[in-house]
Amino acid sequence: MRIVLVGPPGAGKGTQAAFLAKNLAIPHISTGDLFRANISQQTELGKLAKSYMDKGELVPDEVTIAMAKDRMEQPDAEGGFLLDGFPRNVSQAEALDEMLNDEGMKLDAVLDLEVPEDEVVRRIAGRRICRNDSAHVFHVSYKAPKQEGVCDVCGGELYQRDDDSEETVRTRLEVYHTQTEPIIDYYRSQSLVVTIPALGKVEEVTARAMGALAREDA
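Request: output the structure for the sequence above.
Response:
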């Protein structure tokens, strides 16, 4: 299957992408991973992307599209893929359609993870990270440390990242609504969108998505 995963920040896209890709035996292609891989391997595309990032500029669509195209042409993606973070806007969605059409392929589904905006803010603004090890993550409501402000694992100080503040989260949501959400309407016109309520336990959301995909594939 060839799937695009969309949803607002804090919807759990990365977590769901990993579970779904494993269940479907297809590669999880994340924009973040693509950038990191190309930059660390110093590919021409990675060097080009880094030149923009070093100047604090957005990486142009054509660079992101070229990275995604290169990744989708690798052998492990022949049987399908799950795209996470790409396409990010309608221009990229149109480019993806063109790429697939050139290869005689098409998308099977666009999974839209639906989370109320207040829940998104609650999820992200409540996160607390350990200063000693960023892998130690807590949440003031859902995974509170035994002692406030102290990491259960190593005793390090817990803090809120600047980009996890409520103000920043609401700004990120506005960017999502303006730039990314329009691709849902774009794909809805192709009857590809499947809306998945993303509240509840991770495995419950995965089960909903797998069930919806099974119906789409039937």
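The mean pLDDT is 93.
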